[in-house]
Amino acid sequence: MADDRYSRAPSKPSEKPFPASPASDAGAFSDEDEELLRSVEREFGTAEHAAGTEGTGRPPAGGMIPLPELPPPPEHHPYLWLFRQIKRACVILGVVYLAYWGLSRLFAGAGKDSAPTDGGNVGLPHQSELAAEKSAALTEKLSEGRRRLASSDMGEGLKVLEELADDKPTSPQGQKAMLTLASTYRYQMNDEKNALRWYRRYLKENPDARDAAATSVRLAEYLNQLGRPDEARRLYEDVLSRFPDRQKEARAAAAALARMDKP
Q1: Mean pLDDT (10-residue bins), the chain, 263 residues
Q2: Rounded to an integer, what distance in angstroms lies between the CA atom of residue 223 and that of residue 31?
Q3: Radius of gyration of the chain, Cα coordinates, nearest whole angstrom
Q4: How far apart (Å, rounded) are the C-alpha atoms in residues 232 and 53?
Q5: CB hemisphere CA count around 13 (13 angstroms)
Q6: CA-CA distance, 88 to 160, in Å (whole number)?
Q7: Model pTM greater than 0.70?
Q8: What kind and span of H or E run contains 87?
């Protein structure tokens, strides 16, 4: 920082800008004073230059040498407060987001591993896992019934398949069990009553199933063979009206009706 004695400009042109040294009592500057004055002028400029009065012969107003304006310290920068507020808001938003993400994962995991019951939340397998396990159990039961039918234990095989068909009539395994029973009673046991019962039970429980049209055609053929053409005709006509997009079954029904109409 410059010495205070150099911050005052002479109030009159005749005043000396610096205190006279012993060697300058006669009115002249010493070499040391001249060098110091030149260094101050190089650093800050002359008083007239700083005040805009250089070359006019007039001293600066107030006799003060205006020092160059320095930038404000960093802690007082006009944008520093705004920057700090933005930084603080970003930190708060980050913390809120992490907390939300963690809680959502926690509750998602809790909902997956447990389900509410009358006694509270009890840990249970997920619903999709339960469905997969049940489907696997039904498939195993269907396979067991078919294996028993293929062996000498046909009675036990029929029992297993009938239990499956009665318990789960609309499941894929239950549908296959009913069709297996109808075919077994028709072709292997020549049991007209039970064959018709399981054909009709299948169509009643699953009227829009994938095999409903084909089963209707098979039942109509069986009724026609048994000498019941009126019932067979109604089934063929039902296939044509309800399943026109099933081309194979529709063609078979149309052909059967054409044969029945021949004299």
Answers
A1: 49 49 51 73 57 52 54 61 83 88 77 48 62 88 91 89 93 94 93 95 93 94 94 94 91 92 79
A2: 138
A3: 53
A4: 124
A5: 7
A6: 70
A7: no
A8: helix 80-113
Number of H helices, E strands in the chain: 10, 2
Is the CB of residue 212 less than 8 Å from the CB of residue 203? yes
Burial class (CB in 10 A: 0-12, 13-18, 19+), 164: buried
Q: What DSSP character marks residue 2? A: -
Q: Could you give the CA distance from residue 235 to residue 238 in angstroms, rounded to a whole number?
A: 5
Structure tokens at 167: 């318990």
Question: What whole-number distance in Å separates Cα of residue 133 and Cα of residue 125?
Answer: 10
Written in H, E and C, the secondary structure of 29-77 is CCHHHHHHHHHHHHHHCCHHHHHCCCCCCCCCHHHECCCCCCCCCHHHC
37 vs 20: CA distance, rounded Å: 13
Closest CA to 212 of 261, 163, 186, 245: 245
Characterize 99-123 residue by residue with b for buried, 16 or more Cβ atoms within 10 angstroms of its Cβ, and e for exposed. eeeeeeeeeeeeeeeeeeeeeeeee
Say whether 115 sits in a helix, a strand or coil: strand
One-letter identity of residue 193: K
CATH entry, 127-261, from 3.30.420.40, 3.40.50.150, 3.40.50.12780, 1.25.40.10: 1.25.40.10
Spatial separation of the C-alpha atoms in residues 219 and 236, rounded to whole Å: 9
